[in-house]
Amino acid sequence: MTGDTPDEPTESATDRERVATDGGEDEVAADGTGIVPPDDETPTWSERKQRSQGLSRLTYEYFERSRREDQDLRQQSSYVERDVLAFPTWPHELVRNLALTSFFIGMILLLSAAVPPHLPGPADSGSTPAVILPDWYLYWSFGLLKLGPLNPDLSLLGGQKLMADRTYGVLANLVVVGAIAVVPFLNKGSARRPVEQPFWAGVGVMGVVFAFTIAVLSVKNLVPMDSHLLFDLTFLAPIVCGIIAYSVLRAMREGYMFDLNRRYYRLRPPK
Amino acid sequence: MSIERKDEHDHDAWMEERDLTALESMYLSVLIWFDKRLRIVDYLELLEDLYYKVNMQMPKSHTEQYNLDNKFWYWYPLYALGSFSTIAYVVAAISGALLGFYYAPAAAAADGTPSVAYESILFIMGDLNLGLFLRSLHRWSAQIMVAAVFLHMLRVYFTGAYKEPRELNWIIGIVLISLTMVFGYSGYLLPWSQLSFWAGQIGVEMSLSIPLIGEYVAQLLFGGFTPSQATLVRMYILHVFLLPFVVTTLIAIHIGIVWMQGIAEPH
User: Fold this and answer.
1) C-beta atoms of B263 and A87 within 8 A
2) How many C-beta neighbours within 10 Å does residue B169 have?
3) Is the pTM higher than 0.80?
4) Which of the two ends of chain B, N or C, has the fewest CB atoms closer than 10 A to its terminal CB?
């Protein structure tokens, strides 16, 4: 006994051939539909998939591989408890959210009943209002349009600017969005908490503070301050806050990781 | 040997011999009626799957599993921000559809006289029953949606939930947050008030400053180089026709991916 597959391919193939050619006389479908009821020779769906060709065959083989991969990982795992890679959305997360949700809708209704919106006068291109501002959530973008002083003037071009100030502002918006978009491709791994990666937490704090300072810059007269000083602070404050956050988290890290290791990595070792 | 064809699947006879209650037999006959037509049995596996998922035993919560001394519960609202923004979106959609019955994006002059659009907002806020509340609800739910989306992004960033298997959803999220702001901007222009007009002016100048294609973009989005009737109609179509379909689809994809991948709890 070698333990190999015990089927006899030649015999069953001839068998099938015979059944196919003699018209299956023991099971004649008399109703004229020509539909033959499934018998032992009818391939199951998994057999059909195995026999298929080309891309579908490839897909099937890949799925079999990944299923086996999961199986192997599960068997090799030395985790003590069930390995929660993520929290299930249904039903756990949705049930958890329901109570918060009803409260939340109530808050929206209360707010809108208590604080109705204000409607300014009708559009008039003749009179420019004293304050032109978009909605608050666009302040950061509006502030980025006012980065003219940072636009480098190249001595090669005889002190001319490479692009107009307003083009520079629109470009700054694209740069910010692009920088946010590439974050997951730069920062990988299983670390989840800010203390585990003080650098990325510092970058995040810098971004948040910059969003606020650039918004303050766009509202110009909000802070009674010399406008040049305000402009410098817009860029200095985020860097300072980022560095502070980095150093605080860095200092916290050792003690915190000791705790984490004790509780957590014993159960689920990091990659 | 009877002449009649013997029916092996005589469900009525089967039901009679089972001695069912009224409720059971009613349920079964409806089920059989549908199954004869739609062959529900082919989809039984899917249904069973759903059924057993609902009855799945709750796994230990994150706090229990890792013995975090139940110090984690106060983070839960931050994990609900995504659903908050979705709910605010739904509230805004409903109130917006109701507002749409009374709003007309028409006759946008810019000479200080109230346009039809402005008048219709005045009518909604002043004369329409519950109109003030309706507009207030629409505006507040929009504001809250944007705020929730921003905070949601911060939560995802600081808990590292954007990491490796979830990059695609992070990028879809960035597209969604941008579209949310476009949603807000186009809505901001609709009352055709002073602020709307000058916000439109800023938008025109922003698109004009794009190199090479700036003028085409301004023509396409704003219908000219100064905010006018064309701008109002374009923003209206963007706000009530184009963006709702695109954003709803993207939200569905976003949530679908979350569903497939699970919530990334901090590790």
Assistant:
1) yes
2) 23
3) no
4) N
